[in-house]
Amino acid sequence: MSRRILIGDRRVDTIDPADRGLAYGDGLFETMRAHRGAVPWWDAHWARLVRGAGRLRLPVPDPARTKQEAEALLDGRDAVLKLLLTRGAGGRGYAPPESAEPMLVLSVHDLPPASPAEGLSLCWCDIRLAVQPALAGLKHSNRLEQVLARMEWDDPAIHEGLVRSSEGDVVCATAANLFILRDGSWHTPPLDRCGVAGVCRAWAMEALGAVETRLDVTDVETAEAIFLCNAVRGILPVARLGARCWAPHPQISALQARLAVEVPAFAAAFTMERS
Amino acid sequence: MSRRILIGDRRVDTIDPADRGLAYGDGLFETMRAHRGAVPWWDAHWARLVRGAGRLRLPVPDPARTKQEAEALLDGRDAVLKLLLTRGAGGRGYAPPESAEPMLVLSVHDLPPASPAEGLSLCWCDIRLAVQPALAGLKHSNRLEQVLARMEWDDPAIHEGLVRSSEGDVVCATAANLFILRDGSWHTPPLDRCGVAGVCRAWAMEALGAVETRLDVTDVETAEAIFLCNAVRGILPVARLGARCWAPHPQISALQARLAVEVPAFAAAFTMERS
C-alpha cells in the first residue's frame, strides 16, 4: 500500500498529531475504484468532495495537482484509491483556527475480493442512524455509527447489514447504498436525513430511472429484487436477508453488464462474480 | 506543548496514517485540568473513558502506566491534559481488524484564558444535535456537530453557543454542560439522547442536588440563573443569552467558591475571574 500526504501544496512525511481529523473526525473522504491507473468516476467523486467541503467550510485542494498525485501513486494499477481531506492541525477546541491548512492523504489499497457469485447475504442492524440533515449525504469522517453497525455481526456468511434511521426508515447498508424493485420500478431511500449519497448510487439511479422513496422493513422484505452498490464494488445482487431469499434477477444482471460496458473498471468484478 | 504517543505499551514518534481515529473518528478523548502536575479529577475522567471504551468495544490502556506517562508529561505544571484513545491502525472498511492495537495520545496544553469576570455571553446555535442513544453521554471523537455549531458565530463578544437536539430539547453548550435555576432548584438536561456527560457536571449535580430535567428554550430563558461548566474551566456564570440578561447570582458564586476549596486546581480560575 502506498500513500502521499499533502498539507496545502507541500508533501509531508507524517501526520500532525494535532490534526483535527484525528481529534474530531473533522474531514471528508472518497473511496474510488481505479482501473489501469485511472479513476473513471473521478469527476463524480471530486464533485461530492467539493459539495462536502462547502458544507463543512473546508478549503478544497487544487484539483489538477490532486489528480496528478493520485495518478502517480496509482502507477497504472487496478486498485482502490482513498482520499482523506481534513481541516488540518489545530489547537484544542472546536473552533477551526484561522491558520489551519487542510491535509490531504492519498492512499492506494488492494481491490477487495470478488463478491460471491450467488449474491450477498444480509442482516438487519440494531443500531439506528441518527437524523442529522446538516451532514446527511456527505462522506464525512464521523463514522462511529457505521463502526458500531459493522461490529454487530461476526458471522462470515453475512456480507453486509442494513441500517434504519431513528425514524424507522431503511437507509442503506453499512458501506453501500440500497435499491429495491417493486411493481416494476426501482426505488432507493432518500438521503436528506442521514446516509451517504454514493457515486455508484447516482449512476444506478440514472441507469434504472430509479426514484427516491422512503422505505420501511416490509417494503424491503417484500421487494421483487434488491441490490446494494458502492463505487468500489459496483452492483451487488442480494440473495438473502434473514429468512427471505431472492433468486438472481435479470434486471440486476443486465445492470451489472451495463456497468461493465460503460465503466470497464467494473468488468473484472463482474466477470469474477460470474466465473 | 508536549506530547507522547503510545501504541499498546510502546512509545512511538508518529501517528500511523491508517489510524482509525483519523479515518473514522473511531476513538474517545478526555480533557482535564492539571494543577501542579496532578489531575484532581483523574479518577472521574478515567471512569468515563472506561465506560466509553466499553460502549465502543475499545481495549483500555493500562491505567497505572497511563497516569505515570501523564504525570511525567505534566512535569509539575498547571495545564490542560488531553488523552485521545483511538482503535489504532486498520485497513479500509468499518470492521475493526482483529489485530488493531489502540493508540493513546497524551498532550499537554496551556490553560485557557480566564473567563470574563462579568459572566459569559451566549447565543443559540441553529444546528440541532442528532439523537443517538448508542453514543449519547460519551466523549467520543465524532465531533462534526460541535465544529459546525462553533462555526455559527465569530463575534468575539459571544463566548459560547447553546445547542438543542433534533427533538427540540436544550442539551448543552458546544463545549460545556448547562445548569439552570428554577423555583429554587437546579436542573440540567439529561444526556441519554445526545450530548456529553461532563465530569464537572457530575460534581456540580452532586454539590447542588441538581436533577435531570428536559428543558426547552423558554425554560432556559426564564430561568432565575444559569451557568455552564466543564472540567477545564470549572463553573462559568452566564450573564447574557441573546436579549436576556442575568445579574450575578449568589448561589453560583458560592458554587465557584466551593469548587475552589474542594478542587484547588480551579482556585486560580476563580480568583482570576474575580480580580
Largest interface here, residues on each chain?
A: A-B, 56 and 56 residues
Average pLDDT level of chain A:
95
Shape-level CATH architecture of the largest domain in chain A: Alpha-Beta Barrel
Structural class of chain A: alpha+beta
Counted up, domains of chain A total: 2
> What share of residues are in beta strands of chain A?
25-35%
**What string gives the helices and strands of chain A in order?**
EEHEHHEEEHEEEEHEHEEEHH
* Main beta sheet of chain A: 9 strands, mixed
CATH class of the largest domain in chain A: Alpha Beta
Number of strands of chain A: 14
Number of helices of chain A: 8
The oligomeric state of the chains shown is homodimer
> What Rg of chain A, in angstroms, do the CA atoms define?
19 Å
Q: Label the overall shape of chain A.
A: globular
CATH topology of the largest domain in chain A: D-amino Acid Aminotransferase, Chain A, domain 2
By CATH's scheme, which homologous superfamily of the largest domain in chain A applies?
A: D-amino Acid Aminotransferase, subunit A, domain 2
Estimate the helix proportion of chain A, in percent.
25-40%
Low-confidence stretches of chain A: 271-275
Distance between the termini of chain A: 28 Å
